[in-house]
Amino acid sequence: MLGIVPVAVLVFLATSQFFVGWQGQVVSVAPPPVQKPDVLTVRIVSADRQVVERSWSAELVRRLEVPFDAVAVPPPTIPPERPATHKAPLSLSFQVTVGVGDDATELSVPTTSPKALGLAALVFFGLVALRNMMWSGSPVSLERRGVYLPPNQAQAGVPVRGQGPGKQPKVRGKKGPPPSRRRRR
Predict the structure, then answer these.
(1) Cα radius of gyration (the chain)
(2) Do 126 and 118 meet the contact criterion of CB atoms below 8 Å apart?
(3) 92 in the Ramachandran plot: left (φ > 0), alpha (ψ -120 to 50) or beta?
(4) Rounded to an integer, what distance in angstroms lies between the CA atom of residue 124 and that of residue 8?
(5) Which has fewest Cβ within 10 Å: 11, 48, 58, 98?
(6) What pTM, to 2 d.p., does this model score?
(7) Rounded to the nearest 10 degrees, what angle do helices 4-15 and 114-136 cross at?
(8) Res 70 pLDDT > 90
(9) Could you give the CA distance from residue 149 to residue 74 in angstroms, rounded to a whole number?
(10) Given this model, what pLDDT does residue 94 score?
(11) Quick one: which H or E segment has residue 40?
(12) Per-residue pLDDT for 170 more than 70?
């Protein structure tokens, strides 16, 4: 049971881009597939001209005023007024610097979301249900159920010992004195 918690935490961290890092300038935004998207894909170009695509909230991208571009090739020269961004690996937020010089504004944006937390909870409860199904046979039961074993059987036509016709098995209770013996006269 304790092995399920680290798996759910790893799913949360991976969904929240905890292990990923980048540094560069946001040059363009990929065209959205729908009219009013909640998430947009931005293209970040690093100093060595590597292009990294990340999904950011549409509200943040609209605030940055980055142009849409259907071509995934960065421009030969990047204007200095494009927002700069930086995310260190093993962190749950990234920084975006808007503007140039003294009037630059730095935004700290968290990478966590309710969707990441919900996915981690779904993985946790799914693995708990799977573990319970394997252990007890029911997704909600935590205790192992006994396996049904049929009563001892004899060959056909042979009575089970002590239970022939007219014979009652001797059952003695655990409390009280033993039954008295009949005396013959």
Answers:
(1) 35
(2) no
(3) alpha
(4) 5
(5) 48
(6) 0.66
(7) 160
(8) no
(9) 70
(10) 94
(11) strand 39-45
(12) no
